[in-house]
Amino acid sequence: MRRSLAKKILTTGLILLTVLFPVALAGCGKGGNNTNSVSTSDNSNAGKTENNTDSGNKEAGATEAASTEEVTKPDKITIMVDGTLLDKASGQDAFVARFKEITGVELVIIQPDHNTYSDQVALAFTSDSVPDALILSNQLYTAYATQGALWDMSEAWNNSAAKASGQMKEANIEALKIDGSLYGFAPASGNGCITYVRQDWLDNLGLSVPTTYDQYIEMLRAFTEDDPDGNGKKDTYGVTAAGIIGPEIPYTNYLPEFWQSAYPDFYQKADGTWVDGFRETANTDALGRLKDAYSKGYIDMEVATNTTSACRDKFYAGNTGVFTYWAGKWNMTLEQNVQSTYPDAKLTALPPIAELGNYIERQPPVWAITSASKNPEGVFKYLIESMVDGGDGQMLWTYGVEGVHYEKDASGTYKQLPDPEVPDNTFLSAHIDPVLTTRQWEDPLYSIRDERVKTSAELFQANSKIAPLIVPTETMSAYMATLLDARSIIVSKVVTGDMSVEDGIAQYEKEQGALSDSIVAELNSK
Amino acid sequence: MKLTTKQLKGNSRFKKIWKYRWFYVMIIPVIILSLMFFYYPMLGIRFAFFEYTPFKGPNFKGFANFEELFSNHQFWIAFKNTIIISTTKLVLTTFVSVVVSLLLNEVANLAAKKFFQTLIYLPHFLSWVVVASIFSIILSPQHGFMNEVLIQIGIIDKPIYFMAESGWWRKVYYVVNIWKETGWGTIIFLATLTGIDPQLYEAAAIDGANRWAKMRFITLPSLSQTIIIVLILNLAKIMNLFESVFVLYSPKVYDVADVLQTYIYRQTLTTPLPNFGYTTAVGLFSSVIGCFMVLLCNHTSKRVRGRGIL
Amino acid sequence: MNQNNSYYKKRNIKNILNINLLIYIIFILITLVTVVPLLKIFVDSIDATANYGINLWPNKPVISGYKIIVSTVALYKPFLVSVYVTLVGTLLGLAVSTIAGYVLMQYEMPGRTFLSYLLLFTMIFHGGMVPTYLAMRDYHLINSLWAIILPASLNVYNTVLMRNFFEGIPNSLFDAASIDGCSPVRIFLSVILPLSKAALASIGLMFAVSYWNEYTNFTIYISDANLRNFQVMLRNLIIEDTSLAAASSAGVYQNTVKSAAIMVAIIPFMILYPFLQKYFVKGINMGAVKE
Going by C-beta distance under 8 Å and a sequence separation of 6 or more, which residues neighbour residue C114? Predict the structure, then answer.
């Protein structure tokens, strides 16, 4: 037995040696040996340096462009984009062909699976296969910009035809500046969630649309206890949501009427000081309201484990009468689906109640040009500006290709065609949601737009403010996950009754108070 | 004299190698596969000691990644949960699979056997996302099947929120795992059972052995090697528990449900600049634990049965 | 199997009946437990208003869920990709695991222990996502289905199980073959493989299922939309907010379409399984010994 153990150790050692041997080589053989591993590590180093030189050159490039105002047209532009751009099955090839027709530029599209897009972006940068331009979530945008991975497009934006047109919602673009420089461009606003209410339930109960929190709670009570659907069974409840606290900024969009002015994360007050909103009384009050409503059964009992699709199905099935979800085209989709079971159903998009004041608009995903791009000015002009040119380009990025995605009859009336991918559906947009564009233009399809989509989008636009763009500090990004964990654990335990509000807040103070203090101090000293 | 023995020994070793020459040739493609797709990438394990983000590094940082890991409170909760949930799950599912295989082996009617077998395999073909959505419906406190039945027969008077109560979560998790994987687990055991020489049973029958005795003295011993292999090989994967937990848990039950991989997932998902060095460090830590367990159990198996799995 | 003598039979007949009855009752219970959740998916897939709750009969039976899946052109190619990867991968996986299993069986072979540890470590230690990705890039396998097929074909778990099955083959058969002067390769091809049908069927099915359900590697190594597999699409359908189904026309719930897609994903195995099953149930050695 003993001998076999010794043998095993020997074997293990041998194998480890086989593994470590090339490691050792790779560690000291930078001079260029001919083993496989060394040559690769050399390759990747070469890639990195090249990258650095590129970013070093970027200032020189920018000034050059400004002085000459001549922008060379790139032959091709490589972009990386998530599922928000139409895919192959929906006619991406026709899209690319049309793009070439308009701009003369060949568009090469890398479109990884939607769910793992951010992993793929990270891999692309790690393996030095960086595209010219890519779409980035708000969080990736701030992080990548501060790492020097993105090209400063302030100059290009200031000189752009889009800006000169005077039709851009400039505030949306200005809001993306980081320390005065612009690294990303949003052809569409970020949209946000608005509360939808079953108008037919309100009518059945003789209630009017709530405008204050008291009326809102009264509505939830009535929806829960007074049999709003008139089926004689007590089988409904007030409101459903996919979680109590959202997993990302702006956090409070699932149940905004309860959160009201509370904001459970770091934010800058009007006087310029930073605070941790989770430790403010507004947050304690919000938790109290949520806990109270949950214990009375007004909030979906399964709020802590719901997925969004489960919430939608519950809303469609008439289990609940209030649901906060995306403004715009979802108004139509939600109503159509409810009506398939309850033909008399009607939805109303609720203006924010008095205590809430405003809905929150999400920071939009942005198009950014990488520092690795050889001709960033050209990419800006031919790619980004084409999305907001108020003409052919914008038409393409919004509605797709004529003859494939929409058609115009002899009288000049437009008609949207079925989605090539799902023939039962109408093709609605190629990339930019028409109701969200940041460039006002004469949208030729405006007149055929669904009334419900228009009203809820316009109501939202009129009653929302944009979430702050927060550039995280080092400590903040390092401990973001830890803090989010702590908050979501406490919120779910408090609201569903495992813990009192006081205990929850006390636990946060005890476990995360010091960390929170140091981050606030760091933010305030910036 | 000594010299000649050595020579002889060397000679016989060479003879042995020559005797097995065809086996070496056969295994070459397999070795190439393992070198290309496993050992060459394994060089990346060194990044556990580096800082390495999409824009930085790799810069050598010594044990900094490990220090960060070990000083984290939630990490230790997750580590404890991983060990408890993983081993309990492994033992339970293997045990149930063995019992079901033995029972299935006793079913004499071939058609019935085929029917049962086909049916119990099916849940395995469903992905975890699907399984989670089915069970959250069955266990729902709002008119979920389970709660309705329990209330009807008067065991409880208020619905239980099975998926989100710390006291219930693990039990639910084990039940769901047994439901999904038992049938599939029987494949291996049944394939082994079909390999048992029928003469053994015939001989035992002549000796007057009853059903129980046959199972006890023929079937189980034949299965034991397979059971041990399955257990030990699964130990290597013990730290990899991820998807099944990920689709079933929620913040409310993190204290009993959060495992190492879900913890890491949240840590990397919510940071826009993932430090691959940190995640590699976690991976290395898990691998070392897994390796230790496998070698330990293999050694124990050798001690007890005179034979390991390798 | 029941060639018991009559004395033994008589004494135990009551007992045996009871045991059989008990076994059947247990299996009926197991069946029920297994079936109810599966039935729920099936019923939902043909119910226009499939919703939250248990109903074992559709409220409003339709086939539009399936119609949406079938009419969704975007799912055709992924389905074919899945079939291709599963077929090629399973064959390759079986080749690797039988060869390696056969070699690992040679306990006297010099270097065997080293070899077995070499393989075992591939199961335990991993380089991590980034180094593996960089290696694939060096091999020019990014956006190639071989990046999915090749690494997964070396599965140590399956190899060890395969070796375990091989060891069940009676030694007398090997000896006979060696005396006949067969080379190891000949023995492998003409003695071992034909006798291991149950093992090949079960390990093959295990390979097939894991290739069919392959998801993570597709999302890492494949960014070409033409090479996505069915699982990636299915996942998007189930998790995504803006999936095909979410946008699908009024009248059909998302849950209906989801359930239909799940059923479609299981169907290949329901078709394949009966063909494999005869190898599971029949004994393998019975025929061989009698020869």
Answer: A11, A14, A15
